Amino acid sequence: MSSEQLLVEWLKDERRCSHLLGAEDSSDGDNHFGGKDGMTKSVIYLEISAFIKSRNGVHRPPKGVESKVNALMSSYKKTKDWINNTGQGVLLEDCEVFFRELVTKKFPYFYDLDPVLCQRPSIDSYTNDGKYSDTASDSEVSDSENEVGKRPVGPLHRSAN
């Protein structure tokens, strides 16, 4: 398994994801979403690095893991925004299978991560360039208040099987 796939596997675990990004619908108000049980984000990235090395033998430095997490969160957010805006119109016009293909072309791990990320306000703090920002622009805030983070009903959340 690639390091990226292992990172996604790590993030798919609700308990682990909560350690890094905070529990569903919660934040501590100062954008430090790690820190549960005294764990800082640095310690969590070190833990993820050790997880990857134990599973595929490849060392990924914690800073590299942090960059990859930021990039994954940004890609997730961009795909979620697309679904909530343009994507829903595509879903109405085209079949569900085609819609799933479009979503996975935009972000291959969307359906893997959506169950644990869809209700986390911290996701809105990731910018389109893959960086974490403690201040969102006015357009990002208005988009996130309208749709991002709400779980759509229907084929979007059905199993791919």
The overall average pLDDT, rounded, is: 74
Rg estimate, integer Å: 16 Å
Helix content: 55-70%
Low-confidence regions: 25-36, 132-161
Largest sheet: none
| Helix-and-strand structural type | mainly alpha
Number of helices: 7
Describe this structure in words.
This protein is mostly helical and 161 residues long. It has one domain. It contains 7 helices and no strands. Helix 1 (3-12) packs across helix 3 (41-56), helix 1 runs parallel beside helix 6 and helix 3 packs across helix 4 (62-93). The longest helix has 32 residues, at 62-93. The radius of gyration is 16 Å and the shape is elongated. The two termini are 21 Å apart.
Distinctive features:
mainly alpha, 7 helices, 161 residues, disordered C terminus, 58% helix
Short description:
The protein is mainly alpha-helical and 161 residues long. It has helices at 3-12, 14-21, 41-56, 62-93, 96-106, 110-117, 138-146.
How are the SSEs ordered, and which strands pair?
Elements: H1 3-12, H2 14-21, H3 41-56, H4 62-93, H5 96-106, H6 110-117, H7 138-146
Helix pairs in contact: 1-3, 1-6, 3-4, 4-5
